[in-house]
Amino acid sequence: MSAQINKNFLNISQSYLFAEIAKRIRDWQAANPEHASKLIRMGIGDVTRPLPETVVEALVKASREMGVAETFHGYGPEQGYDFLKTAIQNYYTRFHVALEQDEIFISDGAKSDIGNILDLFSVDNTVMVTDPVYPVYVDTNVMAGRKIIYAYSSEENGFLPMPAPEYKADLIYLCSPNNPTGAVYNREQLTAWVNFARDNGSIILFDAAYECFVTGDLPHSIYEIPGAKEVAIEFCSFSKKAGFTGTRCGYTVVPYALKRDGADLNHMWLRRQTTKFNGVSYIVQRAAEAVFTPEGEKQINENIQYYKDNAKIITDTLDRMQIFYTGGKNSPYIWMKCPGGMKSWDFFNDLLEKAYVVGTPGAGFGKSGEQFFRLTAFSTHENTEEAMRRFERIYG
Ligand code: PLP
After folding, report:
1. Rounded to whole angstroms, how far apart are CA atoms 70 and 60?
2. Domain spanning 53-292, CATH architecture
3. Residues of the chain with CATH 3.40.640.10
4. How many Å lie between the centroid of ligand 1 and the Cα of residue 245?
5. CA 8, chain centre distance (Å)
6. Which of 129, 173, 239 to mutate for ligand 1's pocket (most ligand atoms within 8 Å of CB)?
7. Mutate to test the pocket of ligand 1, among 46, 112, 237 (most ligand atoms within 8 A of CB)
8. How remote is the CA of residue 45 from the centroid of ligand 1, in Å?
9. Which of 7, 60, 97, 310 supports an S-S bond with 377, CB 3.0-4.6 Å?
10. What is the pLDDT of residue 16?
């Protein structure tokens, strides 16, 4: 007798994208030591601005409370403290979405919940993802042995695939604003997805990790669409909103109205979390609460604006050069067509060798990315300007 492994792990494609990028940079640096200091990284997916002062103050205050017997906090509620859930509940009212407090579950970030939510679903469920795709949606389902259907996208549909009979699946992943394409579904388009899910008994797993970049009349939350509460779970994060990539906090909304097979998914998720999760630290939840104070909001908006200004430097350059792209306006990601019909890895090499600039080849996010390239707005103004100057000089 011996332990059997989950053989589905053998089917996960090795995530070589960022390792391969790092290797190519190392090789280039070794071959070009005289230019190594000129390298500019435009592929960064992590934020670079520090935590806002208000958030830091909340962290310090909460830490001090933990050192005093009267204000010490031990195990908290697995699903999060009410003070943070109230702040999130109030935030949603701005989009005219009314949530019950217990429909909101605080987590240590969107990535864990996106993976963990699959505990609620049968391995026999089919899954649809849009391609190009945030690889977590694919790998978590391959680990469980689920069948995946890809909704491919292109310049023609603005990288926003729409429902079609061949995309019928039990679980549908949508990410808007999208990583990697930066494309955002409008109300009409999201309504079509919600109706598609309603017609087919599907559940939409909606990733709103970048909602804070949305402006104008575009939806921040899927629950802005009538009927969505019966068919959608929403994931969100403080990572990009408030610089919490290293601090770790997010939340998931599972509406009471979401039911399948006579079961209430909100209760199932509560049961799952109280069994397998012991909550996010009090200190971090106090920090997340501070994000919603008027001062905290002012400070995080300055950081978001900083990234948006970078995105504008990039999109202005691409507009001048008449290069097709999506994103950048309501997203920190710009998804551009490689110049001269180049394939994404060829363009990666060309850009590195000629401009000493690094981005992310679209092929790493799926078939639809073969001729596309992702630039991010998380660099400094100075580096973004310099990178785009070099880019325009070479490809303009
Ligand atoms: N969803 C998308 C689309 C992302 O791009 C990321 C992070 O890059 C996440 C979720 C994960 O966010 P978190 O840091 O909250 O785990």
Report:
1. 17
2. 3-Layer(aba) Sandwich (3.40)
3. 53-292
4. 9
5. 25
6. 239
7. 237
8. 9
9. 310
10. 75
pLDDT at 215 over 80: yes
pLDDT tens, position by position, 347-385: 999 999 999 999 999 999 999 999 999 999 999 999 999
Per-residue pLDDT of 95-131, as tens digits, reads 999 999 999 999 999 999 999 999 999 999 999 999 9
- Helices 53-66 and 282-290 pack at an angle, to 10 degrees, of 150
Residue the block writes with tokens 């292109």 = 154
Please, which residues bridge with residue 260 across strands? 263
Residues whose CB is less than 8 angstroms from the CB of residue 205 and which lie 6 or more positions away in sequence, other chains included: 114, 117, 137, 171, 172, 173, 174, 232, 233, 235
CB 387, CB 357: distance < 8 Å:
yes
Q: Where residue 14 falls among pLDDT bands split at 50, 70, 90? A: confident
The count of residues in the chain is 396
Q: How many A from CA of 237 to the centre of ligand 1?
A: 7
Rounded CA-CA distance 161/196 in Å is 13
Name the segment(s) of the chain with CATH classification 3.90.1150.10.
8-51+295-395
In this predicted model, what pLDDT tens digit does every residue of 40-83 receive, in sequence order? 999 988 999 999 999 999 999 999 999 999 999 999 999 999 99
Nearest Cα residue to 151 out of 139, 159, 140, 143:
159
Query: What local confidence, expressed as pLDDT, does residue 13 receive?
Result: 83
Pair of tokens at residue 106: 């605080």
pLDDT at 1 over 90: no
Q: Which residues line ligand 1 (CB under 6 A)?
A: 45, 109-111, 134, 175, 179, 207, 209, 237, 239, 245, 250
Which DSSP letter does residue 242 get?
Answer: H
The fourth-level CATH superfamily of domain 8-51+295-395 is Aspartate Aminotransferase, domain 1 (3.90.1150.10)
What is the per-residue pLDDT across 162-200, written as a single tens digit (0 to 9) for each? 999 999 999 999 999 999 999 999 999 999 999 999 999
Q: Tell me, what amino acid is at 336? A: M
